[in-house]
Amino acid sequence: MSFILIYSLAYILDLCLGDPNYFFHPIRLIGLLINGFEKFLYRFKNKKISGGLLTLSVLILTFIISFLVARISIVLEIFLIYTTLATRCLGNEGQKVFNILKKGDMEKAREEIGYLVSRDTNEMDEIQIIRSTIETVSENLVDGVIAPMFFAFLGSFIYLQGHSLALPFAMTYKAINTLDSMVGYKNEKYINFGMVSAKLDDFVNLIPARLTGGFIIPLSAMILGLDWRNSWKIYFRDRLKHASPNSGNPESAFAGALGLQFGGKTSYFGKFQNKPTIGDKIKEFNVEDIKKSCQLLYVSSFIGLFLLIILKLLIEEL
């Protein structure tokens, strides 16, 4: 079965079913693997080296296991590729906050957004909740959708023992992403131990983030009748303002398309930070902007899939 058909089926499964929530989810298993290695390796004095060994060990095991599993069954391969995607999951999370805000339940909305962001949510007003939701959707479009697609696409050109490396590449990317989310913090505990994981996550997202912000989101905005010209304008102007080398790419394109301004005063762990602003405040935040951001998410995921399929066909014809 061709990569295009396999990946299209995985994408359809994601749109129809969303992220499966069960104990043996591959990403949860990767998380358990990280926890197990961390307990052993964190005891060593040189945290940079032990953290690097953590990253290397998890990635090698993830790659090998994914490759072996992909050889068992095409059905299993499709299912596992599907678990690397999070379009429906992200859309559902945004929709949850939208529905709660429409009912006027601020307490419940603060609780729900607290599952999505690391910032303090107890004192958030409606505008801050809306802004945080849209920022989260835009940022996670890269690591939850476009980047896994991108690495599966790269892996589809490489064969080992007659089997494509699409799944191992996509799952190894998700392992890098999970490592960053678990140990890639710049706090006292992880500043050295998680350095390799954080740097590697920044590196592997360089191309997907710029492809998403510089092309996929503006094109999706055009299809949806949003301000695609402003999306490009804000992308090129503000993409480097974010503390992350990659997050500013999708966020700036989203901000421009929706006519909103991200960033500003934000509370983390009881301390306020004045984050650089991204975008122009053409209008104030409105709860309907969450729905627009989810629409932008879905269309962007489809454009990403369509783009990679076209590139796959073109390259194979050469």
Question: How would you describe this structure to a colleague?
Answer:
The chain is mainly α and 318 residues long. It has one domain (3-317). It has helices at residues 3-17, 26-41, 47-70, 74-83, 87-102, 106-114, 126-155, 166-183, 195-204, 206-224, 228-238, 248-258, 288-317, and strands at residues 159-160, 163-164, 262-268, 271-278. It has a two-stranded antiparallel ribbon. Strands 3-4 form a two-stranded antiparallel sheet. It is globular, with a radius of gyration of 20 Å. The two termini are 21 Å apart.
Topology:
Layout: H1 3-17, H2 26-41, H3 47-70, H4 74-83, H5 87-102, H6 106-114, H7 126-155, E1 159-160, E2 163-164, H8 166-183, H9 195-204, H10 206-224, H11 228-238, H12 248-258, E3 262-268, E4 271-278, H13 288-317
Antiparallel strand pairs: 1-2, 3-4
Number of domains: 1
Give the CA-based shape: globular
**Beta-sheet strand percentage?**
5-15%
Q: Give unreliable regions as ranges.
A: none
> Using only CA atoms, what is the Rg?
20 Å
Calculate the mean pLDDT score and round it.
93
Q: What is the rounded distance between the termini?
A: 21 Å
Helix content estimate: 55-70%
